[in-house]
């Protein structure tokens, strides 16, 4: 009887071929995993920016005095006369969310005492938030505000907030006298 001390050439070639198949399969699995992680990170980055956008708009409305101006033409424009939510550390800020015609870009304009369109002399900060917008719509009825936003080729986003009441128009106080006039004095007709 002969004892074998080594592998034959055929056995070595078969083991190399099997090892190559296993390595190719592992390489393909690693490539799929890498692509999956890339897509996941892209999705998380997008979701984070969408969440930040909705959170900022929500806080702008929640911190408002209720004086919201909604203009609707091709897109909606929302101006908040006074809000405590300031990205630039203003005590009270006027914030407008405007859709620009170029690339349907949603921008947030923050400042004090400015009008839309903003002139060069206005001291405001403009943040570009979303491009390729299909929908930006806002509704304010009673104490509820509904906001809908949709980017091209993406799911629609939105929220509703309650408790945002429109401010009552300021009534003239009947007890005040105009400046420069003398108040009339009534004599007390009752005996002392």
Characteristics:
alpha+beta; 30% strand; disordered C terminus; single chain; 3-stranded antiparallel β-sheet; 192 residues; 8 strands
Write the layout of secondary structure elements.
Layout lengths: L8 H54 L5 E5 L3 E8 L9 E8 L4 E7 L12 E7 L2 E9 L2 E8 L5 E6 L30
Protein architecture, described:
- The protein has a domain at 45-162.
- The chain is an alpha+beta fold and 192 residues long.
- It has one helix spanning 9-62, and strands spanning 68-72, 76-83, 93-100, 105-111, 124-130, 133-141, 144-151, 157-162.
- Strand 1 and strand 2 form a beta hairpin.
- The longest helix has 54 residues, at 9-62.
Q: What is the CA-CA span between the terminal residues?
A: 145 Å
Please tell me how large the radius of gyration is: 33 Å
What is the structural class?
Answer: alpha+beta
Work out the oligomeric state of the chains in this entry. Answer: single chain
How many strands appear in the DSSP assignment?
8
Beta content comes to: 25-35%
Uncertain segments are 177-192
- Give a quick account of the main beta sheet: strands, pairing sense, barrel closure: 5 strands, antiparallel
Fraction of residues in H or I helices:
25-40%
pLDDT averaged residue by residue: 82
Q: Taking strands numbered 1, 2, ... along the chain, how are they ordered across the largest sheet?
A: 1-2-3-4-5
Please tell me what the overall shape is.
rod-shaped
Write down the secondary-structure element order: HEEEEEEEE
Helical stretch tally: 1
């Amino acid at each position: 009887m002969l004892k074998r001390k080594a592998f034959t050439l055929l056995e070595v070639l078969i083991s190399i071929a099997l090892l190559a198949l296993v390595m190719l399969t592992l390489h393909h699995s690693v490539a799929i995993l890498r692509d999956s992680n890339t897509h996941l990170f892209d999705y998380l980055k997008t979701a984070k920016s969408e969440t930040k956008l909705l959170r900022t708009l929500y806080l702008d409305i929640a911190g408002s005095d209720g004086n919201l101006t909604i203009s609707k033409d091709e897109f909606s424009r929302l101006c908040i006369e006074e809000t405590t939510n300031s990205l630039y550390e203003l005590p009270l800020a006027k914030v407008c969310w405007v859709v620009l015609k170029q690339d349907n870009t949603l921008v947030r304009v923050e400042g004090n005492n400015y009008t839309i369109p903003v002139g060069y002399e206005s001291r405001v900060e403009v943040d570009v938030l979303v491009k390729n917008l299909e929908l930006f719509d806002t509704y304010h009825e009673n104490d509820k505000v509904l906001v809908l936003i949709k980017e091209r080729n993406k799911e629609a986003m939105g929220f509703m907030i309650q408790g945002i009441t429109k401010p009552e128009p300021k009534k003239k106080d009947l007890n005040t006298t105009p400046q420069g006039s003398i108040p009339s004095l009534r004599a007390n007709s009752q005996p002392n």
